[in-house]
Structure formats: structure tokens, C-alpha cells
Amino acid sequence: MSREVILYIGVSLDGFIAKEDDDLQWLYEVEGEGDNGYSEMYATIDTTIMGKRTYDYVIEHAESFPYPEKKNYVFTTSDQGSNEYVDFVNEDVVAFTKKLKDQKGAKIWMVGGASILDDFIKENLIDEYIITVTPHILGSGIPLFREKNPQINLTLIDTKRFGQFVQLHYIVK
Questions:
Q1: Of 26-35, 73-82, 91-100, where does mean pLDDT reach its minimum?
Q2: Cα–Cα distance, 49 to 119 (Å, whole number)
Q3: Integer CA distances (angstroms), 10 to 30, 102, 105, 143, 161, in order
Q4: Residue-wise burial string across 77-88, b where 16 or more C-beta atoms lie within 10 A, e elsewhere
Q5: For residue 1, pLDDT beyond 80
Q6: Are residues 149 and 65 in the same domain?
Q7: Does a structural domain hold residue 78?
Q8: SS3 call for 25
Q9: Distance between CA atoms of 167 and 140, rounded to whole angstroms?
Q10: What does the alpha-carbon distance between residue 52 and residue 55 come to, in Å, rounded to a whole number?
Q11: What whole-number distance in Å separates Cα of residue 141 and Cα of residue 127?
Q12: Residues pairing with 16 in the sheet
């Protein structure tokens, strides 16, 4: 049995995960409820995967590293080695993740960003989609889904409302 990869992400009604300049401020201006389901998802994972731009954004905007007790991998072509919280990976994200899925452990959270997320979708590496729709039409930005993806059939297993957010929870058929 292989480990599952989950995508837990916020998206505007018109399908954007950030503005062009990586601005996410619009996400924090919405009336939510509690932590909008974050802690429930977070309890199911023991590993995170993210790209370097996402990691840099997290480091710049968080008071402290938000996933200190998890195993964290950052995919990059520039940094090497590791620091207190993350291992920098200079390998192919798809091949690396397939190896991770075969190891023992809990679920793996694909945090972002758009570039490695696109690789995951094109290879159908995501087992569970937890997408929280925000009450925004941004008009432009960084899309959740890029073009030329394979058809992936999903099963809706839950919907939840958190204030003005609507969370859709799918598993891959």
C-alpha cells in the first residue's frame, strides 16, 4: 500500500491560487471559521513537499517555520543540503515523490507551488484533492490548473462550509 499525496489549497472562484506577484493577502481578508479545516488535514500528514518559491514565501511571511515537526522537502535547483526544518532536493520531483510514496508513513501534503503542482497533476500523483474555494474573482494570477492535463476522474467525498469558504474534498477514482 503506497502513501497518499494530498493537495490542500485555497483557490479563487475563477481558479487562481495567487496573484501574479505571489500576493495571497486576499485569502486573509475572508471571514472563515476556526482554521477552515487546516488542523484536521494537518493531523493526517507527516511529510510536506513544496517548491522553492513557496518555501521562500513561507519563510518571508510566517513568524516561524509552520511545519517544524513534519519531514519537509523543498525542490530547488539552487539550494543544497538541509537546514533545521527542510531538506533541499535537486532531483526530479516526480521520481522523488514516487519513491516517497513507497516508504512507510502517513500522507504527504503537496503544499505548492504551481510549477511542481503541474508536474504532479500531469503524472496523476495526487490521490486526494482538498480545495477550498474563496469568494473572489481575481481575473488573473497563478492558475491552480494549467493546460494539457490528463483527464482525472474524481469522487466527491465531502463538502464543508467555513464562513465564506467552501471546501470540496475529492479522492481520485
A1: 26-35
A2: 12
A3: 12, 28, 25, 11, 13
A4: eebeeeeebbeb
A5: no
A6: no
A7: yes
A8: helix
A9: 21
A10: 5
A11: 25
A12: 143
Crossing angle of the two packed helices 93-102 and 114-122, in degrees rounded to 10: 70
Least reliable range by pLDDT among 23-27, 51-55, 117-121, 155-159 = 23-27
Rounded distance, CA 33 to CA 161, Å?
Answer: 8
Q: If you average pLDDT over residues 66-85, what whole number do you get?
A: 94
Give the separation between CA 40 and CA 136, rounded to whole angstroms.
24
- Count of domains observed in the chain: 2
* Nearest residue to 41 via CA among 95, 90, 5: 5
User: What pLDDT score was predicted for residue 22?
Assistant: 82
The letter for the amino acid at 38 is Y
Of the pLDDT bands very low, low, confident and very high (cuts 50, 70, 90), residue 145 is very high
Instruction: Residue 21: give its domain's CATH number.
Output: 3.40.430.10
- Measured CA to CA, the distance from residue 81 to residue 102 in angstroms comes to 23
Could you list the residue range(s) of the whole structural domain that residue 76 is in? 49-105
- Burial of 160: CB neighbours in 10 Å, binned 0-12, 13-18, 19+: middle
Check: CB of residue 138 under 8 Å from CB of residue 28.
no
